[in-house]
Amino acid sequence: MFRAALAAGFLLPAFGSFAGAQDLSLATVLIDGENWQLVADGYQFTEGPAVDQEGQVYFSDIPASRIYKIDLEGKVSLFADATANTNGLMFGPDGLLYGCRNGEKQIATYDSQAKVQIVADEVSSNDLVVLGDGGLYFSDPTGGRVWYVSPEHKKRIVAEGLRPNGVILWPDQGTLVITEAIEPVLWTFRVEPDGSLTGKDRYYGPLQMLPGSERTGADGMTVDAVGRLYVTTRVGLQMFDPIGRLGGTIARPHSGPLANVCFGGPNLDTLYVTAGDKVFKRRTQARGVRYAKTKANSP
């Protein structure tokens, strides 16, 4: 069965049963005959895939301090240069591209002409997620913290004592998920109306690890419209159902680890992953989400 699963392009989970959750397994995500396709290569280290309103995907080449755009025909072009080692990216409800401009200790936005505007400064950052009301969360692995920046650009620490890396929101924006560099779990927090985080929980896990490894390499995440969560790891792209159970792992498109993931394309039905010096894509039956303009739990 293991060989058959590999041939189909995914690994079965190492524990548990799919009973009662067949509709949330990888069988209804993957498409027969559809595999990973190389989109672009030759970069230094790709990260931060983000999708705009048209379905075009942007990604960062951190050491080169550049951001690139993949249009709907698959053509790759330079969007921004001298980006101060921008890492994580995400589009906000205002149509601006938000980025972790860590080389200058800033969170910034890029408009359609790549003009930069500072949202927060004097901060260390890695990844971010933008809420529907314009607020955002970003991870600070160096400080072991997660920050919140309000729509008015006021920043404050909302979680500490972690080794945070990737951050993402559930589709309803009521729960924040954080990848952990040490433990084989993904943390969840309830998002309060004022941006505070409560109810810390080991919701997803355990994550799969390569034989002999002590770390999962969990990094970037995305979610789909029915609440499945996808996280990049050293094993591959691990998928969890809405109640935190591992539904399977999509095999890696190359021999190295994956860094980050997003849904792109005009129908948000194509997974894009950044992987070392490359970017890959894979069409699926699932669809990503765009966060609404108003938070579901706003007062």
Shape: globular
User: What do we call the CATH homologous superfamily?
Assistant: TolB, C-terminal domain
CATH C-level class is Mainly Beta
- The number of distinct structural domains comes to 1
Structure description:
By secondary structure, this protein is mainly β. It has a single domain (12-283), classed as Neuraminidase (6 Propeller), CATH 2.120.10.30. Helix content is 2%, strand content 42%. It has one helix spanning 2-8, and strands spanning 10-11, 37-40, 46-51, 57-61, 66-70, 76-81, 89-91, 97-101, 106-110, 116-121, 128-130, 136-140, 145-149, 155-160, 164-169, 175-180, 186-191, 197-204, 221-223, 229-232, 236-240, 246-251, 260-264, 270-275, 278-283. The chain has a 5-stranded antiparallel sheet with strand order 1-22-21-20-19. The radius of gyration is 18 Å and the shape is globular. The N and C termini lie far apart (50 Å).
Topology, element by element:
Layout: H1 2-8, E1 10-11, E2 37-40, E3 46-51, E4 57-61, E5 66-70, E6 76-81, E7 89-91, E8 97-101, E9 106-110, E10 116-121, E11 128-130, E12 136-140, E13 145-149, E14 155-160, E15 164-169, E16 175-180, E17 186-191, E18 197-204, E19 221-223, E20 229-232, E21 236-240, E22 246-251, E23 260-264, E24 270-275, E25 278-283
Antiparallel strand pairs: 1-22, 2-25, 3-4, 4-5, 5-6, 7-8, 8-9, 9-10, 11-12, 12-13, 13-14, 15-16, 16-17, 17-18, 19-20, 20-21, 21-22, 23-24, 24-25
Task: Give a short synopsis of this structure.
With 299 residues, this protein is mainly β.
